[in-house]
Write a structure and sequence with these properties.
heterodimer; A: 330 residues; alpha/beta; Rossmann fold; 4-stranded antiparallel β-sheet; 12 strands; B: 325 residues; 8-stranded mixed β-sheet; 31% helix
């Protein structure tokens, strides 16, 4: 790895994804800017329909064909522009440099192939070798994700494994080619708390060993608080706030972030009434002229409904950005 | 809160047997739940906590009389629910309701909201159509929906509103107890708190009791007055929510709670790692079912003898050899 501190591992600038339908054009990813450094975990937080998964898919260029496309912006991996790569060049990046872990291990594994076969699939593409070597490396990958008795498990079918074990296998596939970036899209939602804790600890250890960057897509503030270094908060296709975890939890600048954090019951907190956010997110077909959160915001004034707020530096040191008129107007 | 239990569970067990092996000659038994004992008083919330496969869902199915137990009884106002018939059973069905996890699959998409909400009344009670209409509107109003929503179809609503509709249908027959099986885990964060507050409001207004099954421990702590922690089909610890969360007595409870992530980056977590996964209920360990994963195992006694759920303090029961030598 040749990149220095100045070049981030992954740099996304002004990324915009458009979906055209008969009903009109929508922007599930609307002007994203963020960076990811090696050894860092970036949490992408938002509710369903906020564009989290579309952001992930656009990074690996796996947007649904014909329906969605990237219209502008840039995605640079160690300074190399991914958006201008040809399809075959992109295939070499996917899995080798950027790997993904998806939400549901039930559906992301093929039930009719052994675990070993599915791990070596990525290896066969990116680092071909004789069958015995590939098998050794599949066992090695299983050992890294702490699957007990990997020599036996490599010949198991997904149905023979428990949910937590399957998610480890998905993790083994992701790390098999030693990627620089892992995009994890809600990988622990279907797991029990104890298994979730084991899995998150495993991800942390793998990160310490390899220095990979992790983009963690989630709606769980517990995971964000424990695992992530920095967060971007998404609402209606836009990043409304970004900054370090400590800063955002201690002093959220955007009313949406603030309300979202206050709406989550705390394990060791007061038992008073939970804060609620009235209403629900607007449907994508309605493109409001102003701030998309304004109709649900307690602090909105007339300007919020008519003009889109700019993204401004909330604390004056470039570490904490928010797009809200309340911050911009100060 | 009064202290008369509306539901009393006595030594409730559900075992499933099936044939296996050559010519199906072997009989094997899965003990889904064994020897459950608990009460639910009116106006209180009891939570069942545990990992998947611990028997939470089987328990709720037994309480709803969707299954008959192998052993033991569920007493509703002193009567065994499995002996109820005819009018008595209909009365039980209308007084004990349920709200499930997924508002997308628990509502029939081809039925208008009015008909969906009215179903418990139509099935279990004899009312005039005017009375049904009035009750449906009152239920919709109680969950924060408008009377004109009654004419709409489920697809016209968002996930949070659908969960409100499911709740309206659960309260329309004026139940005394509602089983909440993962009632908010399918919802977005901002909607979740609306629904949690709604459960609290309805409880305060109608004196409802809840049995809550939720894997999110923070939600459980927030909603429940008492908790029963389950492991491999047995209750291993029971007590007031705050007592159990603040000072867990059973090593399993301790480890489970330590695994929960708090939405507070400043909080120091001392996670107690549990080795391995929940053993298969087909082949449970000898002695205490938790001993292979226990960080406080005392050796011989834990491996050979299964502990009994015993009173450790007033209103607090634990099933562990450490407390009953």
């Amino acid at each position: 790895m040749t990149h220095t501190q100045e070049t981030p591992l992954l740099e996304v600038r002004d990324l915009r994804v458009e979906i055209s339908t008969k009903a009109g054009k929508f922007f599930p990813v609307n002007g994203h800017n963020f960076t990811l450094n090696s050894g860092e975990t970036l949490g992408v937080v938002g509710e369903s329909g906020s564009g989290k998964s579309m952001t992930a898919m656009s990074l690996v260029r796996l947007l649904p064909k014909h329906a969605a496309r990237v219209t502008s912006g840039s995605i640079k991996l160690e300074g190399r522009e991914l958006l201008s790569l040809s399809r075959s060049e992109m295939r070499k990046v996917r899995g080798r440099d950027i790997a993904m872990i998806l939400q549901d291990p039930q559906t992301s594994l093929n039930p009719s192939f052994t675990v070993g076969n599915q791990i070596t699939e990525a290896l066969r593409l990116h680092a071909p070798g004789p069958r015995s070597t590939l098998r050794e490396r599949a066992i090695e990958a299983l050992r890294k994700v702490k699957v007990a008795a990997p020599e036996h498990r490599v010949d198991s079918y997904p149905s023979q494994l428990s949910g937590g074990m399957r998610q480890r296998v998905v993790g083994a596939i992701a790390i098999s080619c030693a990627p620089k970036v892992i995009i994890a899209d809600e990988p622990t939602t279907s797991l029990d708390v104890t298994v979730q804790a084991q899995y998150l600890r495993l991800l942390k250890e793998l990160q310490e060993d390899t220095g990979m960057g992790i983009i963690f897509i989630t709606h769980d503030f517990g995971i964000v608080a424990n695992l992530c270094h920095r967060i971007v908060v998404m609402y209606f296709g836009r990043i409304v706030e970004s900054g370090t975890v400590e800063r955002i939890f201690a002093k959220p600048a955007h009313p949406y972030t603030e309300a979202l954090i206050a709406a989550v019951p705390k394990l060791h907190g007061h038992k008073g009434r939970l804060r609620t956010i009235p209403g629900s997110p607007p449907p994508q077909s309605e493109q409001p002229p102003g701030c998309p959160f304004a109709p649900r915001c307690e602090m909105a004034d007339t300007r919020c409904f008519t003009e889109l707020p700019p993204t401004v530096d909330a604390d004056g040191d470039g570490e904490h950005l928010a797009s809200c008129w309340r911050v911009a107007g100060q | 809160m009064t202290n008369t239990p509306i539901l009393k569970v006595e030594n409730l067990s559900q075992h499933f047997t099936f044939q296996t092996g050559m010519l199906k000659r072997q009989t094997r038994t899965v003990k889904a739940v064994t020897g459950l004992n608990f009460d639910i008083c009116s106006g209180e919330t009891l939570a069942l906590v545990g990992e998947s496969g611990c028997g939470k869902t089987t328990t709720t199915r037994l309480l709803l009389r969707l299954q008959s137990p192998t052993l033991g009884r569920v007493l509703y106002d002193g009567q065994d629910i499995n002996e109820l018939k005819g009018a008595g059973l209909k009365a039980y069905r209308s007084k004990v309701q349920a709200v499930f996890q997924d508002p997308w699959s628990s509502i029939n998409p081809r039925v208008r909201i009015r008909d969906f909400v009215a179903e418990p009344l139509v099935v279990n009670e004899k009312l005039t159509s005017g009375e049904v209409e009035r009750r449906v509107h009152a239920a919709l109003d109680a969950v924060g929906l408008r009377p004109q929503d009654a004419r709409k179809f489920p697809h016209e609503f968002s996930g949070g509103q659908r969960q409100r509709i499911a709740i309206a249908s659960a309260i329309v027959s004026r139940p005394r107890l509602i089983v909440l099986d993962e009632p908010v885990s399918g919802l977005d964060v901002s909607i979740r708190s609306q629904i949690i507050n709604l459960f609290k409001d309805l409880q305060a207004e109608y004196g409802l009791s809840y049995i809550l099954v939720a894997h999110d421990l923070a939600t459980t702590r927030y909603l429940a007055d008492r908790v029963a922690v389950m492991y491999l089909g047995q209750i291993i610890e029971q007590g007031a929510t705050d007592d159990v969360f603040d000072a867990p007595a059973h090593p399993y409870t301790e480890a489970l709670l330590s695994a929960a992530l708090s939405a507070d980056p400043g909080e120091v977590r001392n996670e107690i790692p549990m080795s391995g996964e929940v053993p298969s209920p087909l082949n449970p360990p000898s002695g205490c079912a938790f001993h292979p994963r226990c960080h406080r195992s005392m050796g011989e006694i834990c491996q050979s003898r299964s502990p009994v759920l015993g009173e450790q303090a007033p209103n607090r029961a634990v099933s562990c050899h450490q407390y009953a030598p």
